[in-house]
What does this fold into?
Amino acid sequence: QVQLIESGGGLVQAGGSLRLSCAVSGRSFSSYAVGWFRQAPGKEREFVAAMIWTGLYSYYGDSMAGRVTISRDNAKNTVFLQMNSLNSEDTAVYYCAAGRNFPSSTSSAYNSWGQGTQVTVST
It folds into this structure.
């Protein structure tokens, strides 16, 4: 089982940036895909970005395309989500997830989830 802990959320003004972190621990996850999803109040969970742990492939959803970058630090076993040009529609709880599948936009492809970190964008 893989454990994931998100951090880095908070309150940011519109137009600002945030970098979310996802600390990964547990069984060997070098063959895992790690993804970021978000869920706003009253809305379905939405895919943001995913990557193979090796970093050789990454995949972005339409919701934040061009404004986010997914990356990882092998030494720290941490995956990051750099978010830029944030607006009020980006307000949501952001979740990190891991799964032994090719990076996917489908939440069911991931079997380990973090607790989420709140991002609030003020106008």
